[in-house]
Amino acid sequence: MSILIKNGYLLDPATGTEGLSDLLIENGIIKEIKTNINTIAEQVIDAKGYYVMPGFIDLHVHLREPGYEYKETVATGSMAAARGGYTTICPMPNTKPAIDSKQMVEKLVKKAEEVAVVHVLPIGAVTKGQAGIEISDMKGMVSAGAVAVSEDGKSVMNTALYQSAMIEAKKAGIPVFAHCEDKDLAGIGVLNESKKSRELGMPGISNAVEDIIAARDILLAKETGVRLHLCHCSTKDSVMFIKMAKESGLPVTGEVCPHHFSMADDEITGDDANYKMNPPLRSREDIKALKEGLKNNIMDVIATDHAPIVQKKKQNPYWMRHLEL
Q1: Global pTM value
Q2: For residues 205 and 192, what is the distance between their CA atoms, to the nearest angstrom?
Q3: Cis before residue 66, ω within 30 degrees of 0?
Q4: Is 22 a catalytic residue?
Q5: Tens digits of residue pLDDT in 244-293
Q6: Are 6 and 70 within one domain?
Q7: Number of domains in the chain
Q8: Alpha-carbon separation of residue 210 from 34, 215, 267 (angstroms)
Q9: Does residue 319 sit within a domain?
Q10: Burial class of residue 1, CB neighbours in 10 A (0-12, 13-18, 19+)
């Protein structure tokens, strides 16, 4: 099968290629890139007015299967990814049951092979059932196809246990993806602690809720030598901590989600849970820091944190602490 993509604006960061160009693909392999390719192909795509880029990789998605198929499935999530230009996605383990064992990873991999239209690289749970009590079988999960571990949706609050888990992840040769949230400090907060939270009379979530755990996890990564990736960073100090870690030569990376660098808490118009997310929308000052972090290669990745929630849950009052997964 030969495909000729014509008149597109080609962007390829790996080779530094940028500009108007044609691209010839034969049997899934790029054979030629240049202006005005006249080869006869079985399929010709006119990409005038479009960018042509390598497939995106999303390091942070929630496919909801198993357990929450009424919100998303491996099949529908992969189709949504493909529609957005993603060819590889990494689903988080907070399903029901959690992806916390070799057997659960094997089931997800098998399901993806059967129904997914993009590559699916599972992320396993740090602890069994994500209960924060017992470390999961990381070696087994890696052998089944897991590429990282995470307790996404919560932090491992037991620091000693988390340290041991990082040591196991280091042995298994995989990174730890950290959800940074001090649940005790977050309390009953529902949006960013700010003038807006006071205006709406709702309990706030301070920047320290994220910053304390981000700093702790970086220090643990320094001690254990594990590769650490901070998920959905939302505060200016998270950017600062990652910058300091990199300057110290630590294997620490960070991601930012589009909503966190494109919307601020002062845009929340009232009791509208469509603005509700975790971490919450932050201040203009935080947005500026996130953008600068991306611009200066302090922050490494833009990830979506794709996490479908049924509409009726978004119609709940904003002040309800937790939207169901």
Answers
A1: 0.93
A2: 5
A3: yes
A4: no
A5: 999 999 999 999 999 999 999 999 988 998 999 999 999 999 999 999 99
A6: no
A7: 2
A8: 47, 9, 21
A9: no
A10: exposed
